[in-house]
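Forum: Protein Structure Q&A
Topic: Joint prediction for protein chains with partners

I've read a bunch of threads here and the consensus seems to be that you should model interacting components together rather than docking separate models afterwards. I'd like to see that in practice. Below is the full input, 238 residues plus whatever partners are listed. Could one of the regulars post the assembled result?
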Amino acid sequence: MTQPVYKRILVKLSGEALMGSDAYGINRATIDRIVAQLAEVQRLGVELAVVIGGGNIFRGVALGAEGMDRATADYMGMLATVMNALALQDAMKRVGLVSRVQSALHVDQVAEPYIRGKALRYLEDGRVVIFAAGTGNPFFTTDTAAALRGMEMNVDVVLKATKVDGIYTADPVKNPEAKRYESLTFEEAIVNNLQVMDATALTLCRDQNMPLCVFSIFKEGALKRVVMGEPEGTFVRN
Ligand code: UDP
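Posted by a regular:
Agreed with the consensus. Here's the joint model:
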C-alpha cells in the first residue's frame, strides 16, 4: 500500500473557510466537512498541526480602516481565532479526533498557552494540535503564524487550505482561461504579488526553505491526495 509522503504537516485554515455560504460565523455542516478531510489524513498516521484564522468573525485590518485602533482590532481578531479553535476542537471531538488547543494569547480557562515542547510531544503522541491566536502579536496574520508554527514544529510542509484548488494565472471564477500552476518559486509568488499568502509569511517560508502547498479544502479528497504525493494544488518552493 502506498504511504503518505509526509510525516508531519501543518494545515492553515482560514476563518472564512468555516463560514461555508453564510455571511458570518461558523457553519456546522461546513466545519464537519473540513474535519472529515483532516481526520482522513490523520488516520493515515500523518502528524497534524492546524493554524486557524479568524476572518469569519473579525479582521483587524477592516476594523482599523473604520477608525478603530489597529492593535486593539488585531487583538480582537486573535480572540476570534480562539473561538474558531474551540469550535474546531469540538467538531473534531464529535468524530473521535483527539486534539489540543494552544493559544498564543493567555486564555487559560479555555486553552493551554503555547509551549513548543508540549506541542511537539502532542504531535508525536498522535494528537492534533490547533494553534490559536496567531502569533500573539498585532500587525501579523494567521498566515504568518502558520509559517512560524510550521517551522517551530519541524513540519515537512505547510498546506494552505483555500476555496480554490491552487494558484492560478488569473482568477478562475472570472476568467475561464485561467490556468493552475503546478509549482512556483517563492520569488515568483512574491515578485508577481500572487495572492497566496502575505509577504511576511512568504518570505519566512522562503528564508527557512519551508515548502508550501495551496489546495482546496472543499474539493473531496484533495488534502489526502496532497499528503499521498499525488498531483493536487500548487506547490511553492525555492
Ligand atoms: N491577527 C493578529 N496577529 C496574528 C494573527 C492574527 O493580529 O498573529 C489578527 C488580525 O487582526 C487578523 C485576525 O487576527 O485580521 C484574523 O486573522 P486572519 O485575518 O489571518 O484570519 P483568516 O484570514 O485566516 O481567516
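The two ends are 31 Å apart (CA to CA).
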